[in-house]
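Issue: ligand-bound run for adenosine-5'-triphosphate - logging full I/O for the record.

Environment: standard queue, default settings, no custom constraints.

Inputs:
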Amino acid sequence: MLVQASQGQSGSAHVVVLGNEKGGSGKSTTALHIAVALMKAGQRVATIDLDCRQQSFTRYINNRQAWARRTGIELELPVHRCIKAGLTMQVADNENSELTQFTDAVSDVERTFDFIVIDTPGTDSYLMRLAHSMADTLVTPINDSFLDFDVLGTVDPQTYAVTGESHYAEMVRDTRRKRRQLDGASSDWIVVRNRLSMIGSRNKQLVADGLKELSFRLGFRSVDGFAERVVYREFFPRGLTALDDIDETTLGTKPSLGHVTAREEVTSLLRQLKLPLDERGRRRAANRTEWFNSVDKPLEVHDILGA
Ligand SMILES: Nc1ncnc2c1ncn2[C@@H]1O[C@H](COP(=O)(O)OP(=O)(O)OP(=O)(O)O)[C@@H](O)[C@H]1O
Ligand SMILES: [Mg+2]
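Outputs:
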């Protein structure tokens, strides 16, 4: 019921899921960047953290809220829910409690928000699979190394040609198939290369070639995401993203060229994700920008006289 109710039907939120069974690939970092980008585009965004134990996404959002309060800067915040881990000795009871929280979280927001961005843990679990089967857009960040590539496919050690598909890829194939059977909808799967080295290397080219070959077999789109940059690591304690204002007050530190280029690559990633931004959202964003611009300006004489 839950799955049917939240699959991008009209009037229902578009579900973006960040998933990769490999830990530390950039899911939580990318999740916040996508959520903030969507809010800046005027979309109504709810976020859900399924990583009950680590809760990095939740902490990232809490840090953003605290930084906004501390500095008086206006930072967009999503309506957020964190699913708490069941703590009884019974696995089935824990899964039940987590499922109920998740179902409630989705049904609370699916009719009133444009997007739900869901961050998942880097381990296989019932909830993580369920989220994958709900995805209208599945975003899988992977670090640019064959160790991370290994969750998607295997390669020949001599030639680096793709020799097979791995467990996470099979799980995604399975959840996408079930989804198609359920309501005929197909989800868009995008594998995003993360922490790209800024210099060309043989490894970088080989991983790109391998992903291209796998993308045909598995039906995903492979796109370049973020370069390896210190700024992405520094954002977390303040809850910031590369899309927030690049000035010293917002950043709490001197802006650098890294901030500017990071912003360009985040904007480029969002474009490549091809998320369905609706016209009302675009208008909301345009009105807000106009309003922000006008409050900075002193009142014109005719504004005063014409009032
Ligand atoms: N493009 C990048 N450049 C530099 N550091 C990055 C980049 N992307 C992510 N990181 C850093 O890599 C680490 C892992 O990122 P993140 O927590 O987003 O991954 P994750 O997939 O959510 O991990 P987990 O599976 O543990 O939940 C963090 O220390 C983060 O700051
Ligand atoms: Mg994470």
